Structure to design on (214 residues):
């Protein structure tokens, strides 16, 4: 009796969903010599199951391989200033640029490995300040805010003074115009009165009669 043969001996199912991997906090120095602690995360997925099976085989092995790579990305921190990581002005932050640099770097590392995985992105999970630098940073931020407030007050006072000067100038122009107009009205009234008095001197009764008719 022939044995029943099974063509498939074992099945290795792999999820095609995105995998999330958190790195450990790593201390690094910024370009301007400030110490920060950065924690990164990585999202990845299997895009070639056969290559993944031949090289890494399990998700756990992939995570063990990727985790130290994530932590080494802290070497990119010195390419950026401290103010590009921590700033009260969002326009000065360069976190997205830093994340893009990290994503490109780890993709380049894995390009020749043939792991069969695709890196979606590297992101910043957390940025912490060391105990030695925190008071200095807070003091610098406080002074920066105070300087901004003083600049705003100075600008406001300058604008207020300019408004007062424009208002005073406009007032003087209006008063001058009103005085010229009043003088013109007085002159016109005097001319009309002079004509009436001239008629009155010639014939008083007739002038009074004309005035009554008016």
């Amino acid at each position: 009796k022939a044995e029943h043969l099974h063509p498939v001996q074992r099945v290795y199912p792999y999820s095609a969903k995105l995998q999330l991997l958190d790195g450990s906090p790593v201390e690094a120095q910024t370009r301007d010599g400030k110490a920060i602690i950065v924690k990164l995360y990585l999202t990845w997925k299997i895009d070639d199951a056969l290559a993944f099976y031949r090289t890494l085989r399990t998700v756990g092995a992939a995570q063990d391989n990727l985790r130290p790579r994530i932590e080494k990305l802290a070497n990119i921190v010195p390419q950026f200033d401290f103010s590009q990581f921590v700033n009260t002005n969002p326009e000065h932050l360069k976190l997205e640029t830093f994340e893009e640099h990290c994503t490109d770097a780890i993709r380049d590392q894995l390009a020749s490995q043939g792991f069969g995985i695709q890196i979606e992105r590297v992101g910043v999970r957390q940025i912490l300040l060391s105990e030695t630098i925190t008071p200095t940073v807070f003091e610098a931020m406080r002074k920066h805010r105070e300087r901004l407030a003083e600049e705003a007050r100075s600008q406001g006072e300058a604008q207020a003074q300019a408004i007062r000067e424009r208002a005073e100038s406009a007032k003087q122009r209006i008063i001058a115009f009103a005085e010229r107009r009043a003088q013109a009205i007085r002159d016109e009234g005097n001319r009309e009165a002079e004509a009436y008095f001239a008629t009155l001197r010639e014939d008083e009764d007739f002038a009074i009669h004309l005035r009554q008719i008016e």
